[in-house]
Amino acid sequence: MIELTPQQRQELRQTNGNEVRFADPETGQEYVIVRAEVYERCKALLSDDGDWTPEEQLRLLAESGNRAGWDDSAMDVYDNYDESRKNQCP
After folding, report:
1. Maximum CA pair distance of the chain?
2. What is the pTM of this model?
3. Would you say 84 and 77 are in contact if contact means Cβ atoms under 8 Å apart?
4. Which residues contact 40 (CB under 8 A, 6 or more apart)?
5. Residues with Cβ < 8 Å from 11, sequence gap 6 or more?
6. pLDDT tens digits, the chain, 90 residues: what are they?
């Protein structure tokens, strides 16, 4: 494991946990540093290490929707979108 330099730690603190981009001056290659838990979530989403069952896929989709705020009561209006739209159109 590589330890962060003081400059890198300062950059990470200033981003409040968001990604930080670094460039290798010798190669010009760009890198992104993210928190380990963010990396693990992304790695799991992008990995082809195993096939998910339909139940696992639905659970992951539901968890993603909940994190996005789809379980908010303000979103209930979309459950009856077609019916509401019929009532509004002449």
Report:
1. 66
2. 0.43
3. yes
4. none
5. 20
6. 889 889 888 888 888 878 888 899 999 999 988 888 888 888 877 776 667 788 988 898 889 888 888 778 877 777 777 777 777 766
